[in-house]
Amino acid sequence: MEIKMKKAIILFFGLLFLSRTATSAVTASVEKQSFGTNEAIVLKLQTDEATSMSPDLSVLKDLFSVVSTSVSRQAYVVNGQKTSETTWELTMLPNKKGKIIIPEISIGAEKTNPIAIEISDTINKEESLSDDENAKTNEPLFTLKAALKTKKEPFVQEKIDYVVELIDEGQIQNIALEFEPSTNFIIKEAGEPVVKRMPNGKREVIFPYALFAQSSGELEIPNVKLTGSVFQKPDVNTIFGGGFFSINIPSFMGMEAPINLMAKGEKIRVLPAPKDYGSKWWLPAEDVKISAKFLDLPQKITQGSTLTREISLTAVGLSDSQLPELELNSNEDVRQYPEKPAGKTVVSNDQMIAQQKTLETIIVQKSGEIVLPEVKVPWYDVNTGEIKTAVLKEEKIKVLPSFKATAKPLAEKVQNTTLNKQDKEPKKEGFSMLEMSGAFLAGILIAWLLLKPKKEKKPKEIKEKDIIKTSKKKDLKALREHLIKWTSQRYQTAKVVNLNDVAKIFDDEDLKKALDSLQDSLYNENKTTKFDEKIFRKVFKKAVKKKDKQKKQTAPLPPLYE
């Protein structure tokens, strides 16, 4: 008896397991049964359990081109009972016309149901149009095409004109276009869509694009997918599908039906850059120009001044991501520190224009006539096939000596000129009382003007501990100012106007490296070295001790101006 009971229990649970297994089925479904030859078909596969297995799509390869696949897994708990499901969505383009059977698709041990669909040049209008509208035309409701506008074989990274064309009767709304991912092309919108009305009354919408091939050879332009929706009129047969008192609200109001269209890309041959193009930055364009202007330029420029210049680079037929960063080289006259360029792409008169602006900080190193070096940007003219160069010509600027360095020599010059003038005047045999009085008063006035002390506000004294304190705060601008002022005050020289002067006074290689790093961190966006405040403090203290020791060992210098 006990053995029979055990067998019954095992049989019960076995049948229960089989019944659950039988209900764990997979299904396949599509939105409708009729499709156009260029219409995307969305095939949905679903199983009522969470699974990590993938469907076997090999059975579809002869009938369809699968352009995208997505998967989602969800779990629900309803009344304490947990249910799960896994859904795959396949976007496909038909390879054949006529009546087609979507075959069974295996997911593990389970198989989906087959689905019968029809592919034709015309979409089944009974699903979207009334009988009157059906009688008007036998043409496709929706057509999506893509075409090259560039006739010749383009160079790598040259702009390729490409258009996507939609033809419908104006009923598709919420239109969105998306290209399949591709590493071979950079794709940019090249303006707003152009809407036209065709002679047969249909709407033509043209979407312009610019393609930039990233490699040479024979490449295939990616497919483009259009998604949207159409509004379907209410169906009287379904409004009261559940009886008069059971109104189907969506059917009563009408519904939005999704639309998926696909335009296949074509193959294109892309040429490599010409071998005789010597520049390292390949720039195929229709035109390239470069210009510059100073921002807030002072009327008088003195040694040590900091100037700001904006350099504009413009290229027709490119996107801003293709423009190079300018090479701005310093020389003995100036130090140039460019910031990271800011770029944008605009479309004007059906032309794509790349714009880039670069701000640079210029520190004037010496007085006299200085020269800002010219800037060259080589580029390839795609219209003429010539290698050209856009040139920003060198610019000459007159720079005055710093005020502190010229104050005393100027006073000496005035005094010497006055004395020389007095020496050159012929002596008279005698002077009248009036002349003597005038000369006496003039002499007193000149002496008073020359010897009168100037009322200058005494600058705040910077101490060595202030420099150490500022470096610990990592305030690099304040550190630069304190170093210049402190060096000028401590070593009683008026010729300290920049960090290069500070380095010359100390004549210490380690400190010079630290000061160059400081200057680089202040003005150069692409820093070649990182300023280390701890190393700076160490080499600074060492250089000060070395300088003070040298000062004690040497005799004091005579006054700079006497």
Summarize the structure.
Strands 10, 11, 13, 14 and 15 form a five-stranded antiparallel sheet that branches. Strands 21, 22, 23, 24 and 25 form a five-stranded antiparallel sheet that branches. It is elongated and about 130 Å long. The chain contains eleven helices and 29 strands.
- Per CATH, the class of the largest domain reads Mainly Beta
Low-confidence stretches: 11-23, 124-138, 238-253, 410-415, 557-562
Number of domain modules: 4
- Rg over CA atoms: 42 Å
Query: How would a textbook summarize the main sheet?
Result: 5 strands, antiparallel
Instruction: State the assembly state of the protein chains.
Output: single chain
What CATH calls the topology of the largest domain is Immunoglobulin-like
**Share of helix among residues?**
25-40%
Which range does the strand content fall in? 35-45%
Task: Please outline the helices and strands.
Layout: H1 2-23, E1 26-29, E2 34-36, E3 41-47, E4 64-78, E5 81-94, E6 98-102, E7 106-107, E8 110-111, E9 115-120, H2 131-136, E10 143-148, E11 159-168, E12 173-179, E13 185-189, E14 194-197, E15 203-213, E16 217-220, E17 224-232, H3 236-239, H4 249-253, E18 255-263, E19 267-270, E20 284-285, E21 287-295, E22 306-316, E23 334-338, E24 342-348, E25 351-364, E26 368-372, E27 375-381, E28 386-392, E29 395-399, H5 403-424, H6 433-451, H7 464-473, H8 476-490, H9 499-506, H10 509-523, H11 533-553
Parallel strand pairs: 2-9, 20-27
Antiparallel strand pairs: 1-3, 3-5, 4-5, 6-9, 7-8, 10-11, 11-15, 12-17, 13-15, 14-15, 16-19, 17-18, 21-22, 22-25, 23-25, 24-25, 26-29, 27-28
